[in-house]
Amino acid sequence: MILDGKAVSDRIIEGLKEELAKRGSKPYLAVILVGNDPASRVYVRNKKKKAEYIGVKTDIFEYPDDVDESVILNKIDELNNNSEITAILVQMPLPAHISKEKVICKISPQKDVDCFTPENVGRLSAGLEPYFYPATPQGVLMLLDAYNIEVEGKHAVVIGRSNIVGKPMAQMLLRRNATVTICHSKTKNLEDIIKTADIVVSAVGKKIVRCKMVCKKSVVIDVGIYRDSNGNLTGDVDFNEVEPVVEYITPVPGGVGPMTIASLMCNIVKS
Ligand code: NAP
């Protein structure tokens, strides 16, 4: 069965819109965008559009590539201290002269809807409640839940160990009582490990998962999204050969991508 992230996401977004329509006070999102990276501009535009659609007031603060680091840090201070602002997003990547670490540490954990700050990341790894869960892993779990796919007791193999996807994904699966293996570029026998998985979550950005690594009980979640040599959007899983074999699979596009947006909107509404 194909896990339809687009349909589940649309349902969640409509639910959030209805919820906000009934509320007196609305969330207020501030987005900081530095430079002219075309992909970043598209991501920010899409987040703003979706947030405004559900009824979230949104401001984008744009800065040129050569902006001083202190300007960004001061802006975050100002947004932290503005009680009307409930959520802050800083679009990554930042130019090299701006310390990503300083910027992240500046954001108030209570407004950190991306779950980037050390406090929220620490709470997540300590098994405490973070103010917000990271959007992509939370979106993956929301999708599994929407299809009543059991996680507890399953062997989940997460491929990728980035701070925004792989690591928090592994921690969140662990919280759900999965037995978790994390793989990365130095993992030996990747293929053999994937073969032992009930649930595979691939977050790499390269073609990794082939049909010989899965079986008819596998649940395959493809977080990867990139353009192939022909310029087409694709994921980490060879969808055409894996889809006929496995029990559940996400498509790319239309799988994890829309769930990430829905999950982020949940965080903004929670803020
Ligand atoms: P990242 O920071 O580049 O991390 C990639 C991870 O893959 C690293 O941990 C790396 O290992 C590992 N890796 C690289 N080559 C490998 C190999 N041959 N075998 C096993 N592991 C390998 O990327 P990211 O930010 O996590 O994103 C991963 C993918 O997900 C990208 O395609 C990105 O566009 C996509 N993404 C999608 C969404 C969405 O909403 N759909 C959200 C976020 C990201 P090392 O640590 O050893 O280098």
How are the secondary structure elements laid out?
Blueprint: H1 5-22, E1 28-34, H2 38-54, E2 57-63, H3 69-81, E3 87-90, H4 100-106, H5 118-125, H6 135-146, E4 155-159, H7 166-175, E5 179-183, H8 190-195, E6 199-202, E7 219-222, E8 226-227, E9 233-234, H9 239-242, E10 248-249, H10 256-270
Parallel strand pairs: 1-2, 1-3, 4-5, 4-6, 6-7, 7-10
Antiparallel strand pairs: 8-9
Helix pairs in contact: 1-10, 6-7, 6-10
The protein binds NADP nicotinamide-adenine-dinucleotide phosphate.
Structure notes:
- The chain is α/β, with parallel strands linked by helices and 271 residues long.
- It is 41% helix and 15% strand.
- It has helices spanning 5-22, 38-54, 69-81, 100-106, 118-125, 135-146, 166-175, 190-195, 239-242, 256-270, and strands at residues 28-34, 57-63, 87-90, 155-159, 179-183, 199-202, 219-222, 226-227, 233-234, 248-249.
- Helix 6 packs across helix 7 and helix 6 packs across helix 10.
- The longest helix has 18 residues, at 5-22.
- The radius of gyration is 19 Å and the shape is globular.
- The structure holds NADP nicotinamide-adenine-dinucleotide phosphate.
